[in-house]
Design a protein that fits this description.
7 helices, three-stranded antiparallel β-sheet, 2 domains, Arc Repressor Mutant, subunit A, 3 strands, globular, mainly alpha
Length: 176
């Protein structure tokens, strides 16, 4: 669509913004697809499962409420429930009833799940390095963190409880 064909109402992207937007979308999608293919090939798990295992491994008790996992990873409840079911079948995760809220459930990372994560992590990190960080200068890495933080922080703050948003956004803050 040509700029002259656009309706005149609304605030449209300038040509430079449109190019940046398209590069961001295409680059993000291609990167995630590549990393997913590599995880499935090398570790037998899609990126979705890897993300759940990582989220659980970062918790002191290796457990999180199901709704918190869904919020942190931006999954629908049905998508998360399906993924947790598959992880349970593999023996990597167990569900536990919440003692204070019988309707709530926790996902708990098992020893086998932690071992699977430890086995997958080196290859995955190598892929992230090869496809992303090895192509950037140190200055570009910092710019990527700053730009990503500018996107992530307000979206997390608007969509998650404050404590959960703070835990999620601590990963995009500069090192202390």
């Amino acid at each position: 669509m040509l700029a002259s064909d656009l309706p005149t109402d609304g605030r449209w992207l300038a040509p430079a913004e449109a190019r940046a937007w398209r590069a961001f979308l295409l680059g993000s999608q291609l990167l995630m697809d590549q990393l997913d293919r590599e995880l499935v090939r090398d570790a037998g798990m899609p990126h979705t499962y890897y993300g759940i295992l990582v989220a659980l491994s970062e918790q002191p008790e290796r457990s999180l409420r199901m709704n918190e996992i869904a919020d942190v990873l931006c999954f629908s409840k049905s998508r998360l429930s399906h993924a947790i079911g598959r992880l349970e079948e593999r023996g990597w995760v167990e569900r536990a009833i919440c003692p204070t809220d019988r309707r709530g459930a926790f996902a708990v990372l098992t020893d086998a799940g932690l071992a699977a994560l430890h086995a997958a992590a080196p290859g995955h990190v190598a892929g992230v390095r090869r496809h992303l960080f090895d192509r950037l200068t140190p200055e570009q890495v910092e710019q990527l963190r700053v730009i990503s933080g500018a996107i992530v922080e307000p979206l997390m703050a608007a969509n998650l409880p404050p404590e959960l948003a703070a835990r999620c956004t601590e990963h995009v803050k500069p090192e202390a």
